[in-house]
């Protein structure tokens, strides 16, 4: 692939397709260990939900008209005998199985006892039990393949009768920080600046569903050091993110290192501002399985633009999740275009009316605006964002890929 910038939307489609083609096969994982994984098949219930009629209140399961003679008690987990005769009742607990023959459930707080021990009261017109299949019928698909597994999904799967789930594991990610000018501790000074990406990028990767691992840097600004660092990272990662070195300056060794490693570009520069010198390359792994390298620009905000632009759809593909669909927001203020480039503009979204407000401090090297934002408004090439215009939003993720 040449170095002509790729259209932003096309670039996202290309990296998603590449990730999806390289998605690992499904594995069966014990249910309690599936949090953060991705469903590799639809979640279909193995039984009716509920599987049998259950009382939704504490009270009395009655047959026929009252008052009723008490003939037993039913607790959750038991199998009651049928109520065979009119005018009889059993005490029943919430969640207990409704006995065959019961015609109503009388709430305990709406019942009373007669002097001779009979139960009296008026059952409500609405049934006070859950019917079999009320929530779902056996074989019904409840969650599609590609859904992130979270505690809610785990609980649903347990109620459906699952002990294991077919899932795709989170991709393993590594981070290589390039740049001799970077400090990893202390105050900036004497021409050196703090590394503002080595610490937050793993957190972003985790929010996109990856499992961050190896972190190395700053890597020495030499070609052999770059090649060696990438080669080592490939051994334990599905995705390697690098920061800096995506241009062709005197100490930018990423492109020569990729050439030496036999890499193939999926995307090499994107027509987006800020952050256009971003890239994704496919590298042959030692086991024959491809690995991916995402080259993030060195300027901090540009690096995050590369993450939301390319890394998010790539990771979605690697997990077998759907390609991210962007919601729309209404611009509260004007946002300028960037000519033939897509403009990703940081905005804060009003939680009341959903309007998007541009924020300040949004230079490529700045992070103050990012820390105050909810996402990037997308201003397409050849346009400008006028107040009241509906534009796509790339939301910043909250937790584990659930807000792509």
From TrEMBL:
Q: Where is the signal peptide?
A: none
Record's keyword terms, sorted = Magnesium, Metal-binding, Molybdenum, Molybdenum cofactor biosynthesis, Transferase
Where are the membrane-spanning stretches? none
Required co-factors: Mg(2+)
Q: Which CDD domains match?
A: MoeA (cd00887)
Q: Please state the Enzyme Commission number of this protein.
A: 2.10.1.1
Tell me the ranges covered by the MoaB/Mog domain, including all copies.
Answer: 174-317
Question: Which InterPro entries does this UniProt record tie to the protein?
Answer: MoaB/Mog-like_dom_sf, MoaB/Mog_dom, MoeA-like, MoeA_C_domain_IV, MoeA_C_domain_IV_sf, MoeA_linker/N, MoeA_linker/N_sf
> Which reaction is this enzyme known to catalyze?
adenylyl-molybdopterin + molybdate = Mo-molybdopterin + AMP + H(+)
Q: In which pathway does it act?
A: Cofactor biosynthesis; molybdopterin biosynthesis
Q: What class of enzyme is it?
A: transferase
Q: Name one Pfam family in it.
A: MoeA_N
Q: To which protein family does this belong?
A: Belongs to the MoeA family.
* Role summary: Catalyzes the insertion of molybdate into adenylated molybdopterin with the concomitant release of AMP.
Q: Which PANTHER family match?
A: GEPHYRIN (PTHR10192:SF5), MOLYBDOPTERIN BIOSYNTHESIS PROTEIN (PTHR10192)
Quote the protein name from its UniProt record.
Answer: Molybdopterin molybdenumtransferase
Q: Which organism is it from?
A: Phytohabitans aurantiacus
